[in-house]
Amino acid sequence: MPIPRKLFDTIKQVIPPLDGSLHKGQSGRVGVLGGALDYTGAPFFAAITALRFGADLSHVICSPTAAGAIKSYSPDLIVHPILREDSTPDKVQPELKSLLSRLHVLVVGPGLGREPYMQSFAKLALSLARSQGMFLVLDADALFLIGRDISLIEGYRRAVVTPNVVEFKRLSEAVGIDPNTPASERAGAISRALGGVTVLQKGAKDIISIDTTGADADLEASQLKGIDAEKEKTKETVEVDVEGGLKRCGGQGDILSGTVGTFMAWGKCYEDGAFGDHSIPASKMPLLAAVAGSMVTRTASRRAFYKEGRGVVTQDMLSEIGKSFAEVFGEETQGQDKGKL
């Protein structure tokens, strides 16, 4: 099923122009919170994907045990090893709050792990991000965290959750979704139960759904910014069946987090007036980001698989992200004049 033309055209309006009119940072400053002793690849994949997708700056907020490895993977990433096991949320809060104030979006979960100290720092980050009205993407062990305490994200409509099959089942159970609910309606039911959080259900086809009609979807002060809450109520589901690769690599979900996160950062730049005509409401950005990220990630998976076949690994997808972006949204969005090459 093709993406509706109106939705596709709206997505393209949020892509920053590559015409020399923007300054460094106005095409997105992305943060990824995750990375502990055993998990260094996931935050790297999410953060480097942000740059390959088109973000200007990409930060990784991690533990010191992960920082050296992540730095060695790429000098393009800005690494902050502030999540120390021997520290506390109270001690980390001032530095983390300052760092988040410089970002447009925070991706929480890739390489987070389930160690109590990392989970407590993630909880702190979610609280700070909400208080600052940041856009959020939650994946991997951040979903484990909110599954245990949905109040951390409940009602926050500037967020996207990206569960895989197992995570989706756990989240469904955590919010009390009737197991007899039709499969095509479950993502929307979870969104409604979470108070309007956008759900990107990963699978053979990705299902993106938002339902803000429930009682738990009241906007809090950090989300209002003068909008009419009643007019913002929406219920929408989009299926993305763009062809992907035939092998599901570990780490592909981290690439998806990076693409979705970058588009949400662009949404924040658009909201702040860096570019665009301000005709698209900020409440639309999570859905647009989820659809755009899904389309590009699936295309990159297909392109990498066609080249490498059974031996494809997540790293093979990185060089395909820019080309996939051009394939999905058009060469003109890449700002390239082939006559000058």
TrEMBL record:
<keyword id="KW-0067">ATP-binding</keyword>
<dbReference type="GO" id="GO:0005524">
    <property type="term" value="F:ATP binding"/>
</dbReference>
<keyword id="KW-0963">Cytoplasm</keyword>
<comment type="function">
    <text>Catalyzes the dehydration of the S-form of NAD(P)HX at the expense of ATP, which is converted to ADP. Together with NAD(P)HX epimerase, which catalyzes the epimerization of the S- and R-forms, the enzyme allows the repair of both epimers of NAD(P)HX, a damaged form of NAD(P)H that is a result of enzymatic or heat-dependent hydration.</text>
</comment>
<keyword id="KW-0456">Lyase</keyword>
<feature type="binding site">
    <location>
        <position position="111"/>
    </location>
    <ligand>
        <name>(6S)-NADPHX</name>
    </ligand>
</feature>
<dbReference type="InterPro" id="IPR029056">
    <property type="entry name" value="Ribokinase-like"/>
</dbReference>
<feature type="binding site">
    <location>
        <begin position="244"/>
        <end position="253"/>
    </location>
    <ligand>
        <name>ATP</name>
    </ligand>
</feature>
<dbReference type="GO" id="GO:0005737">
    <property type="term" value="C:cytoplasm"/>
</dbReference>
<feature type="binding site">
    <location>
        <begin position="202"/>
        <end position="206"/>
    </location>
    <ligand>
        <name>ATP</name>
    </ligand>
</feature>
<comment type="similarity">
    <text>Belongs to the NnrD/CARKD family.</text>
</comment>
<feature type="binding site">
    <location>
        <begin position="164"/>
        <end position="170"/>
    </location>
    <ligand>
        <name>(6S)-NADPHX</name>
    </ligand>
</feature>
<keyword id="KW-0520">NAD</keyword>
<dbReference type="InterPro" id="IPR000631">
    <property type="entry name" value="CARKD"/>
</dbReference>
<keyword id="KW-0521">NADP</keyword>
<feature type="binding site">
    <location>
        <position position="254"/>
    </location>
    <ligand>
        <name>(6S)-NADPHX</name>
    </ligand>
</feature>
<dbReference type="GO" id="GO:0046496">
    <property type="term" value="P:nicotinamide nucleotide metabolic process"/>
</dbReference>
<dbReference type="Pfam" id="PF01256">
    <property type="entry name" value="Carb_kinase"/>
</dbReference>
<protein>
    <recommendedName>
        <fullName>ATP-dependent (S)-NAD(P)H-hydrate dehydratase</fullName>
        <ecNumber>4.2.1.93</ecNumber>
    </recommendedName>
</protein>
<dbReference type="GO" id="GO:0047453">
    <property type="term" value="F:ATP-dependent NAD(P)H-hydrate dehydratase activity"/>
</dbReference>
<keyword id="KW-0597">Phosphoprotein</keyword>
<keyword id="KW-0547">Nucleotide-binding</keyword>
<feature type="domain" description="YjeF C-terminal">
    <location>
        <begin position="7"/>
        <end position="328"/>
    </location>
</feature>
<dbReference type="GO" id="GO:0110051">
    <property type="term" value="P:metabolite repair"/>
</dbReference>
